Amino acid sequence: QVQLVESGGGLVQAGGSLRLSCAASGRTFANYRMGWFRQAPEKEREFVASISWSGESRSYAASVLGRFTISRDNAKNTVYLQMNSLKPEDTAVYYCAARRNEDVNFSSWGQGTQVTVSS
Predict the structure, then answer these.
(1) DSSP β-bridge partners for residue 109
(2) pLDDT, tens digit, for every residue of 14-60?
(3) What is the pLDDT of residues 70-106, one digit of tens each?
(4) 72-92: burial string, b at 16+ Cβ within 10 Å, e else
(5) Phi and psi of 75, rounded to 5°?
(6) 4: closest CA among 108, 82, 100?
(7) SS3 string of 13-60?
(8) What is the rounded distance in angstroms from the CA atom of residue 109 to the CA atom of residue 118?
């Protein structure tokens, strides 16, 4: 499995921006589709965004479409989540995840980074 370490979380006011990073190691990064998920207190973990190995295919949850952008740098083994126009309801622990291109489910997970948006 690939090892994932997130960074970039923090406290921001509503309307502000944050950029999350996820550094991967242990396997060939380009063999993996990468994703971001989040879990708010007392809620189930939910999908946020994902990106193919080439970056050509991206998908987003409806709640973040137009505000968040996922990208990756295969030379740096890093995936990013640029979050703009943040809302209090975006408050959650954000997790980076990876799945092999041929798999269906995400099988590698980071430890998470807290994002708190104040109103």
Answers:
(1) 97
(2) 999 999 999 999 878 888 999 999 999 999 999 999 999 999 999 99
(3) 999 999 999 999 999 999 999 999 999 999 988 889 9
(4) beeeebbbbbebeebeeebbb
(5) -70, -25
(6) 108
(7) ECCCCEEEEEEEECCCHHHEEEEEEEECCCCCCEEEEEECCCCCCEEE
(8) 27
